[in-house]
Amino acid sequence: MRIVGAVLVGALCVSLAGCGSPEKGAGRASEAGKAANDGRVFFTVDFQPGETLRYKFTSKKNIAVDWDPNAATKSNHVQEQSETFEMIVAYTPVEVDPYGVSTICATVESVRAVRSGGPSARNFGTDAVESAQGKSFALKVDPRGKIVDASELATLIQEMGKQAFRAGTAMGRVKEPDMIGDFIASQWFLWDAESSLERPAEGVAVGQTWRSQLSVPTPMVMRQARNVVYQLDEARQDADGSFAVITSTYTPAESVPAGWPIPYAGRFQMSGTFGFLGPYEVLGLEGTGTELFNLKTGRIEERQQKYVLRVKAGLPPLGIKANPHITIEQTLTMERQ
Fold first, then answer.
1. In whole angstroms, what separates CA 59 from the centre of its chain?
2. 207-255: per-residue pLDDT in tens?
3. How far, in Å, CA of 213 to CA of 186, rounded?
4. Domain for residue 163, yes or no?
């Protein structure tokens, strides 16, 4: 089987308000890439000058708050709600360096967050994540898909964080519910499976595994990561091209990497149920994912990650006797349009 790859190229983004005009640059390092004699796969990510790629990102949380997990019946003790996030981002190359660091310009063409059920469905106004619509940010990326400069993305995340707070309240800083964490999960880790290989020049054999970490967006304010074990499950070639199927499994991580973005700063109180509860203790996290990577074009075609997070919540000292447990069923998807 002949496995092919492509080299990442990128684009230049002038500012968060917009992107520069595309410039001519080098294309792929080779027309069809190279295949190792032993059939190993080489992951590289490719953007072609003047060609915009669009991806649709979704995030769906089904949340169940069990106020009495030891009760014999659950009908009167479980509060159910959901959060849904949909976004389309266009990635346009402007400047290309197939052998070094390239830059792409990402533009958020549309974004929408919706809540249903439970107190979180109350009208808190426009979700802060929707303030990203129409904004652009630069990503500097190396040939294996590793983002080496996401400073403009971090700035946009902080700007969204400011929009999450109520204006003019006598109660101090109060943060409304938001899905900024879901935005981070979709953009900060775009090519994590490909870029987290320790020795990418050696290629990957079918069945080989490697490790990384991904974020865990939650409806409450808490920083949580998940350990990831990736595996090259399949490498195939058919009439539509050459493809790699990458599977992943998730477990809870003990800590969060220091370099991950933080949307909020200072002291504040969160409104709603998840501001009333806390602190939170992770009881477990498990799940799986699948990614389809086009080796010929060097592009992710689609990705799905699903996991269940179980959390134990504390209560303020108000004399309330309860032992609330929270179950969050999370689905994250990425699909080329």
1. 9
2. 999 999 999 999 999 999 999 999 999 999 988 889 999 999 999 999 9
3. 14
4. yes
Looking at residue 221, which CATH number applies to its domain? 2.30.230
Q: How far apart are the first and last CA of the chain?
A: 28
Does 259 reside within a domain? yes
Asked if residue 43 is part of any domain, the answer here is no
Token readout for 244 is: 């790699």
Q: Is 16 exposed, middle or buried (0-12, 13-18, 19+ CB in 10 A)?
A: middle
Q: Sheet harboring 209-215: ordered strands across?
A: 147-149, 136-141, 102-116, 78-95, 53-66, 325-336, 299-313, 280-294, 241-252, 225-238, 209-215
Q: Would you call the peptide bond into 143 cis, given omega within 30 degrees of 0 as the criterion?
A: no
Tell me which amino acid residue 5 is.
G
Q: Which amino acid is it at 161?
A: G
Is 15 within the bounds of a domain?
Answer: no
Nearest CA among 126, 247, 261, 280 for reference residue 185? 261
Confirm if 125 and 169 have CB atoms less than 8 A apart: no
- Work out how many domains the chain is built from and give that number: 1
Cα(24)–Cα(95) distance, integer angstroms: 7
pLDDT digits (tens, 9 = 90+) for 57-116: 999 999 999 998 887 666 678 999 999 999 999 999 988 888 888 899 999 999 999 999
Domain of 248, in residue numbers:
53-336
Residues 6 or more apart whose CB falls under 8 angstroms from that of 103 comprise 10, 11, 12, 13, 94, 95, 138, 139, 140, 141
**Residue with structure tokens 């796969």?**
41
- The CA dihedral of 205, 208, 212, 216, to the nearest 10 degrees, is 110
